[in-house]
Design a protein that fits this description.
single chain; mainly alpha; three-stranded mixed beta sheet
Length: 235
């Protein structure tokens, strides 16, 4: 009998302890439940949905944050169209505009991959071409969603690699300098109003201008000559 009473006391004490632990987490409700996922996830979903909605993209593009990997990377799975951004990327993102570039670039890949099996195979076979295309389509997505496209350059300048060469299958992405210049040219021609945006005063953009100064000046000179020819009716 004593053993039974002792066992009951242990069970009751354990139940009381468990009840105390449950009381510690009271206050959880539907207004704060989802915040358990964290600010990063919440921000990514909001920016990603804004890009999809403001661009009237009629395709499903699921967007995820992978907190288990610290890769400074994001990718689009061309097979199932999902976009994943890895937690290491957040160390280099300084504002919503830069996050918008990362997501817009990957969303552009996913939308392109909806072209069917032939398009899927082409994107895998000629990855560099479609990286450049995603950069430029991503800039269009950014602008339509109200983000500053200069962030594509500030973000790219921080994370793009600069391999010794980028031909063949040695590297799936074009050189960072080429991607940056292609984006700069695109913005210069299509969205010149952003060339004096606040982001052009950021250290990352200034570093881009300093490192690519020769290429930028040559491009600007060609554009000025082209404008003169247009004004004179030569083109």
């Amino acid at each position: 009998m004593k053993k039974i009473l002792t066992l009951l006391c242990v069970v009751l004490i354990g139940s009381c302890a468990l009840a105390d632990e449950i009381m510690i987490i009271k206050g959880v409700n539907m207004n704060n439940f989802w915040r358990k996922k964290g600010i990063d996830e919440e921000k990514v979903i909001k920016v990603g949905q804004k890009i999809l909605l403001d661009n009237h993209i009629p395709k499903r593009v699921p967007i995820f944050v992978d907190s288990t990997k610290k890769n400074v990377n994001a990718n689009s799975n061309l097979y199932d169209k999902t976009v994943t951004i890895y937690s290491g990327m957040f160390l280099y993102i300084d504002n919503d505009d830069e996050l918008a570039y990362v997501l817009s670039h990957e969303i552009a890949h996913s939308v392109e991959a909806y072209g069917g099996m032939i398009k899927y195979m082409a994107m895998n076979a000629n990855a560099k071409k479609y990286e450049q295309k995603a950069d430029l389509n991503g800039i269009d997505y950014m602008v339509k969603a109200g983000y500053d496209p200069i962030a594509a350059i500030t973000m790219g300048n921080k994370i793009f690699g600069e391999p010794v060469w980028d031909w063949g299958f040695t590297y799936t992405h074009p050189k960072g300098s080429k991607r940056l210049m292609d984006m700069y040219k695109y913005i210069y021609v299509k969205y010149p109003q952003y060339l004096n945006s606040p982001l052009t005063y950021s250290p990352s953009y200034k570093n881009f201008v300093y490192s690519m100064n020769k290429d930028i000046k040559e491009f600007q000179q060609k554009q000025r000559k082209r404008q003169l020819k247009l004004q004179n009716g030569d083109l």
